[in-house]
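Entry for the shared binder. Reason: the reviewer on the internal report wants the predicted structure included alongside the sequence.
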Amino acid sequence: MFGDLANAPPHVLEVEGTLPDWLRGTYVRNGPARFGFPGDASVRHWFDGMAYLQRFAFEDGRIAFNARFVESRAYGAALKGRRPFDAFGTLAEFSPRNLFGRPLGATLTDNPNVNVARYGEAFVALTEVGLPRCFDPLTLETSNEFRFDDGIGTGYTTAHPVYANGSWINYTLKFGPVNRYLIWSMNERGARTVLASISAPRASYVHSIGLSRRYAILVEFPYTANALAIAFSGKPFIENFHWNGAAPSRFHLVDLSGERPVRTCEGEAFFCFHHVHAFDDGDDVVVDLVGYDDATVVADLSIERLRAGNGVRTPGIGIRRYRVSPQRGTAERERIAPEPMRVELPRVNTRVDGRARYYYAPRFSNDAFTSEALVRVDVENGSTATWSHPGDAPAEAIFVGRPGASAENDGVLLTVVHSAAQSESALVVLDASTFEECARARTGVPLPLGFHGQFFRST
């Protein structure tokens, strides 16, 4: 998981089993893959590893593979043994420092190691700060930064933009005496329009947003920081955030049509990285996400704890459902599955318009942050299906629907599994309806667990 990888040139993988003849397109993954560097350049949190793109191209029953590090300024500096950028859990190494212990001259990292997307004709690697970085969808070579065509500027955001009615939806957090979340939509040309501005006395760490037909959904968790502390504390960004379990979580519903004001509803204290799905139910909105009882998971994912083999201490991890009622101003938790499951990195069939039935996610062991199986949750009847293979640790599972399919689960799941025994990874293709393996292609090299990827269909 923490080895030093190398750029992998394009080559065709040997396929075991049978690929669907309709599966054509490219699956690109992103995630942190190098953590140790010469001198003082090593990073201290999993979220700060250097971005590593992996490409699996499907055509005529074959799979071509290549991989490449994103050549950000942060990566180039690290190769030279320097760390001049502040990151999520790693402070820049600079001398001298100011009176508050913060490095002089440090700027935010441009290491886009979380996700990928296609903005118009541009393929981009995404992170939570700075600008997206463009890359070639064939060679994975890094090119220019993606420039937004507006005056909103940059700031903290999510690497999980959501797509609705021809526009990308996301937010930008502006720190100040009064912090502001600017919820915006962006067209294919990169021009953003602000849908709403939400003020907050303390900024919450928000990793993703939700979407229903009517609303963009931003949830503030009681894991917050003072803007001045972030600027002057001399601590890495995330170490300025503190948990307050006595405070509520706040669900902000932003009307996509712009006809209604923002509605804010309060619920129990919890923490979340990833939304799963949301849908409108009469006047209410049902929001499904992976919740934690508190935010200790953030510290648990430090390099030191992961290398020591320590588990994720946060209790209560699993898919949660909240019924958000604008009329009552409440967000009440409802039962969604027959028993709690330690899952993360959830995905759905993104082509579902309205209420989705099936959720797909890796399941993690109780004693370590190691995935042991993939599960499919049927949220209509609460049943689950499980796929596992001895020694395989699966990553996020991407749903790819069969062209012309009408059934929600008519398609395949793509996941990369790591086998510690063979010290290599493989791309596994599962039938989403039977949840059985239909093909796998060994890469011959170990790949990182990674974070997120997307499938881009051939045109």
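Summary line for the report: The two ends are 35 Å apart (CA to CA).
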